[in-house]
Amino acid sequence: MTQKQTLVSGIRPTGDLHLGNYIGAMKDIHRLQKEYEAYFFIVDLHALTTHPKPELIKPRTRDAVRSYLGAGLDPNQATIYAQSSLAAEISELHLYLSMVMHIGELLRCPTFKEKAKQHADHVSYGLVGYPVLMAADMFIHGAHKVPVGADQLVHIEIARDIARKFNSMYGEILTLPNGMVEKEARVPSLGGKGKMSKSLGAKTYISLQDSKETIENKVKRAYSDPTRTHLSDPGHPTVDGCNVYHLHSYFSNEEVRKDIEKRCSDANIGCVRCKQMLSESIIELTEPMQKRALAYSDIDVDDILREGAKKTQESAQVTIAKVRKAIGLIQ
Ligand code: SF4
């Protein structure tokens, strides 16, 4: 039997995940946890770089785990843990990696520049080293694959660069990770400008926790084809022609999409009905997820994280022992 490759995926505990997060990071969970030796972890240490509020860390960590469990993450197939449960191992590895990585490259990193602009009053030492900590998360389990958005590929490149430098100094110890960018997900905002994001306001995104009524109300107000002002005007049911159709392309099945394409082009369906159909498709996705997520109490979630921590510590200790030996430290 061929050994499965290792996949490592970090989840930010930023609270209130939305449909864009689902398409970008959760919809393939069923497949990934089957195909790979998968580690899903909540990046509660990374969150300290920009969200250092003690009262939020624990509830948001639990909420993130619950959302992923609702989306189909299975603790019997994948290892689920909080990054902080590997704090000792990751911090140690991060220390060794930080001796290899050049500061200039980190300061030039576009994601650092962007975060430094967003959080100008809190540009910490940790924020500069964020990609190095990320690299430690990947190397600690010898990750072959890391699912990322296209804007995060730069972090994979930095990790590969660190691994090459480290390996050339100490031997072939660290596995070079590969970024997995699935079909670029750009779920549009309900407001029609940019991609779905919390930064544009609560009315422009649909949270995975939104109730049926909230979803219906938000979708009712969604921006649609601006050229269609009367029911008798044929619309433009394409990804670029209508924001609502663009959302249908992610959340409605082929039958619904084809029906809308035909009836909208023939001016045979109104936008109100079309939006109702979109709400129905979204609710069909979110309601079962919410039900599954709510079945897990805080105690259940903590148990899952504890169990994951146990498994992951064993794997991390093996890596640390190898690294220490290669560096020449007394064991
Ligand atoms: Fe857009 Fe649907 Fe209206 Fe056509 S019917 S313009 S696809 S909202």
The Cα radius of gyration reads 22 Å
Per the principal axes of the C-alpha atoms, what is the gross shape?
elongated
| Tally of helical segments | 15
Ends apart, CA distance between termini: 34 Å
Strand content: 5-15%
CATH evolutionary superfamily of the largest domain: HUPs
Question: Tell me about the biggest sheet?
Answer: 3 strands, parallel
| Average residue-wise pLDDT | 91
Q: Helix- and strand-based class? A: mainly alpha
What ligands does this structure carry? iron/sulfur cluster
Helix content: 40-55%
Along the chain, the helix and strand elements come as EHHEHHEHHHHHEHEHHHHH
Strand line-up in the sheet with most strands: 1-2-3
The tally of structural domains comes to 2
> What is the count of β-strands?
5
Unreliable stretches, pLDDT < 50, 5 or more residues?
none
Keywords: Aminoacyl-tRNA synthetase, ATP-binding, Ligase, Nucleotide-binding, Protein biosynthesis
GO molecular function, one term: tryptophan-tRNA ligase activity
InterPro entries: aa-tRNA-synth_I_CS, aa-tRNA-synth_Ic, Rossmann-like_a/b/a_fold, Trp-tRNA-ligase, Trp-tRNA_synthetase
EC number: 6.1.1.2
